[in-house]
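Hi team,

Below is the intake form for Thymidine kinase from Blochmanniella floridana. Please confirm the fields before the structure is written into the shared record.

FORM ID: S-0412
PROTEIN: Thymidine kinase
ORGANISM: Blochmanniella floridana
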Amino acid sequence: MSKLYFYYSAMNAGKTTALLQSSYNYQERGMRTLLYTAAVVCQKNDIKYIRSRIGLTSSARIFNGKTNLFKQISIVNKEKKIHCILIDECHFLNRNQVIDLTKVVDILNIPVLCYGLRTDFQSKLFSGSLWLLAWADKLIELKTICYCGRQANRVLRIDNNGCVIRAGSQIMFGDNNQYVSVCRKHFHKKYN
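The structure came back. Fields below:
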């Protein structure tokens, strides 16, 4: 029986690396995978692949707010059997797309593995994360650590001087140096 999985964490926990490793494991056994990543991440660089911080890459389809995932996946699956769907940056999915993914699991019987952030720099849920927390069959937290050694489960956005940014757009692109993964204790200490 196929399931919808949501692998979530703070930044720098290796989500993309885990996604690419999972895809490789399927492919190594002669199974076909289909990878997606968010258009919002790709717009600036015009890329159509997933790249981990340690250098692993794979081509990927792009989704945006209008993408009908169930329809796209159904068409591709009819052409040639897909054994697993893997979605990077799944926190950018919307409610309808998460429901589409439940249909991929329940109707097409294809497992779907989603990887993304749970919350933003203000500790607010992303839309995709909210709906995946509600609809996923399995919730798996990937671990990363705070500078104090505790498990990091929050993200702080910082400016060039290392000061915490408390307001602004939920989505801001730049390098990983603009974000720091911290535990809840240090989130409260630094954010408030």
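SUMMARY LINE: The longest strand covers residues 4-9.

Thanks, M.
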